[in-house]
Amino acid sequence: MSTPLPKDQEFLLPASNTFIVSSLMVALLLNWLPWHGVWLALRPDFVALVLLYWCTHRPYRVGIGIAWMTGMFADVADASLFGQHALAYAALAFGGIALHRRMMMFDLRQQTLQMAPVLLLTYLVYAAVHWQLHGYVAWEYFLGCGVSVLLWAPLTVLLQTLRRSRAAPGKL
Amino acid sequence: MEQTQSFRFFNRGPTPAVRLAFFALLSLLLLFVDARYQYLESVRKIVSVVVYPLQRIVTSPGVLWNQADEFFALQRNLIRDNAALHQQHTIDSAQLQQLRVLQAENQHLRQLLAVQQRADYPMQLAEIVYAERDIFKRKLFLDKGGQANVQAGQVVMDDGGVVGQVTRVYPWLSEVTLITDKDHAVPVQVLRSGLRAVVFGSGDTSELALRYMPVSSDIQQGDTLVTSGIDGTYPPGLPVARVVRIERDPAYPFARILCIPVAGVDKQRQLLILSGLPKLPERPEAVTETAKTGKARRRKP
After folding, report:
1. Closest CA to A44 of A135, A129, A112
2. Which residues of A touch B47 (CB under 8 A)?
3. In a domain, A171, yes or no
4. What's the gap in Å between the CA of B17 and the closest CA on chain A?
């Protein structure tokens, strides 16, 4: 990011459907990597982050429905109950859409602070469903939540850079 | 939020809150159905058809890495194991050699034991301490001496036959002169014909010679020579040698007869010392000088 754009223009960078879908796909694949032990506990939820990114930057393209569908895929892959991830991601998407106007005015640090409760809400929903099903709260999920929050800024920078490189030079 | 909704220019469908409520309800319904009933298994299977290959792709680098790691670990382990096994093999083969020696020794000792049980004479087992390295004076030293009641003149044999004779006794050692010694003679008898003879050592551990046998004497190749017991030193009937070659040359008065000892004269480690030979009556006094001269005088005229 050699020449930082104005914040409102950053949110206007182009995003093709292919790019959105592939980014979600990559996030899912990252989630499905064979994580083990401590790394599994520390694993950030890449899908949640990418969904949140798109929900805040393209709220009318990626909404609750797409988040919910993605959650269904995650459910099948994780062999969790149908709807567990879906419910969490739907709540996440709602949070992202509700905050997306505010996000335009904030820099990355402030965005991170805004995103933390949303991600925490997602994890809470997930943990609550888990608690309802299995009878205990899996606290190690919340470690991943912390890592996810920390990853918000780098992920945003990365996706912005990718979108910028896809945009025709000089168009913006 | 209410206000922004009322001023919307573009119809974008239901508000996020409504959508959230819808999808949350759907999720909860699915959760409930999935937790309580098995209806959704087919749906799960269909979705997993899409998801499973992706999961495989994602996990494949890890699997490959594990396999490669295993492969190299295997290689390393194999090399290490191979080296260890080689070392072990060397040690084992050395031990095996020892074992073979022990086995042979054991077998030999058993044979000696059998001889000991067969023979009428008390025997004692002795081990060769060292052998003198003089070619012309093949002598052995056994680890039994005067302390073990070994006496000079006792016969030393192994499971095959006579090896030699104790010629000198030390407190803890005894010196054995082999029958193959150049100065050693054993009175023998041909087992087949009963012909008496004396076998001499030749100085070579694998050779004995029957000397002073007339060309016409009844002796054949392969005849076994046993001690005759005539001299009172060797008990009768112990195998000594086997005839291997007879050269009868009429030009010479005596046949040249070569024998080989039946005992492993230079082969064994343990030998038997025969003791307690039967006492022979004293040899009658040799003809005195005067008698000799008398005889001579009587013949002469």
Report:
1. A112
2. 72-73, 76
3. no
4. 7
Bigger pLDDT: A88 vs A41? A88
Is A92 a domain residue? yes
Closest CA to A157 of A39, A57, A21: A57
Domain B123-274: CATH superfamily is Rod shape-determining protein MreC, domain 1 (2.40.10.340)
Q: Do A87 and B28 touch (CB under 8 A)?
A: yes
What is the C-alpha to C-alpha distance for residues A47 and A52, in angstroms, rounded to an integer? 8
| Structural domain total, chain A | 1
Query: ipTM > 0.90?
Result: no
Q: How close, in Å, is residue B45 to chain A by CA atoms?
A: 8
Taking only residues 42 to 61 of chain B, the set having a beta carbon closer than 8 angstroms to any beta carbon of chain A reads: 43-44, 47-48, 50-51, 54-55, 57-59
Beta carbon pairs, A and B, within 8 Å: 89
Full-model pTM? 0.49
Closest CA to B130 of B101, B90, B170, B94: B170
Average pLDDT over residues B186-200: 88
In a domain, A28, yes or no: yes
**Lowest-confidence segment of A114-118, B178-182, B203-207, B279-283 by average pLDDT:** B279-283
Angle, nearest 10°, between helix axes A64-78 and A84-103? Answer: 140
